[in-house]
Description:
By secondary structure, the chain is an alpha/beta fold. It is built from nine helices and eight strands. The chain is globular, with a radius of gyration of 18 Å. Residues 8-122 form the Glycosyltransferase 2-like domain.
Amino acid sequence: MSEKPKFSIIVACFNSERYIFDALASVKNQTLQNYELIIIDGGSTDGTIGIIEKNFSAITKHIISEKDEGIGDAWNKGLKIASGEFVLLLNSDDFWPPEYLESIATESSATEKKVVYYGSTTMVDDNKNTLSFIDKKFSKNLLCIGFRFIHTSCIIPKSTYELVGQFDKNVRIAVDTDWLLRAHNAGVPFKKLSHNNFMRIGGVSDKHKDRAFSEYISRARHHNILKLPAILYTTLMKTILFIKK
């Protein structure tokens, strides 16, 4: 039996005392324990750090608590010290099922150095009630409406980050999809696995959907992936959402 890969889990947080326990407990309860936990805190002023130190110090390899320049900057700090073969990003208000890492280790390939693995995502409310299920496949022909998967479902080799580069901290909301656009331009394949993560509604991109999509289109045009005027893509998305209603 081949050795299981090592995972670097980066959790970026700021004043996250409401949900951080659930997120980190879902890491602690993994059936596969071959991981390093890296917590990048933006200088929280609530009880976030206290919750981490009281309940999760034993599983935390690195914790940095200081002001940052946004989520991209926080992720970059984590990437600099990550030593695992694969990097996972866990939002501080999201969580995983216990078999999450085990499933990924079974299906992924540690020998594949240039790839973005992604899975499905269950959207939930504050009480963890299921609201929707995102289980679509990536298609380069549909980049005009997005990647069709949630970025935090991605499992990415450290070598792929070294190829594509760090997150652009100057991008405010679409910082994750900007990185994926650059990966696409670098010829990185996107491959779907069967793992599923849970994501609470109400994050930054969820609260500012229109702005997030507009920024995504702007970055896609910046990277010369989409070439028509931005208004056409925005109109297309609004039409799709109207039809879905």
